[in-house]
């Protein structure tokens, strides 16, 4: 049963746990949880979010998972975190300072967990958080705590600039480097 309006309102400013495990190949980093994700406790849970279908189409997982199966990701060498922890209705409700603080937190998390690749899903958030004004989608020149960095398109259904196939193609490129 999907969350009610009251559930979504109650989820504002709450957080959800990271999905982590030992020896991660890829740590995906969303911008921040949507109210829908916070209400369900699952990353990329809002209907219309293309993360889960793109993950499957990219070949990183053998079948299409649903958000409630996020606990299976570490078994595939994958994890999920967010730049900003608090849930909002839209990512543009976050301040630049929140994204910069999130980049610092992500750097500490990467240093602790050591994924081979960090994949930030959202170029604008990456630019703001890491101060990389000219960053583009794809592999970045810099590393975070020794981990390769990729910037992926934001899989939100609100991102009309990228199709599901385009997002999956970017994930596929990342998977070939891993």
UniProtKB/TrEMBL annotation:
Pfam families: UDG (PF03167). Keywords: DNA damage, DNA repair, Glycosidase, Hydrolase. It comes from the Bacteria. GO terms for molecular function: hydrolase activity, acting on glycosyl bonds. Residues 17-173 form the Uracil-DNA glycosylase-like domain. It is an enzyme of class 3 (hydrolase). This is G/U mismatch-specific DNA glycosylase. It comes from Microtetraspora glauca.
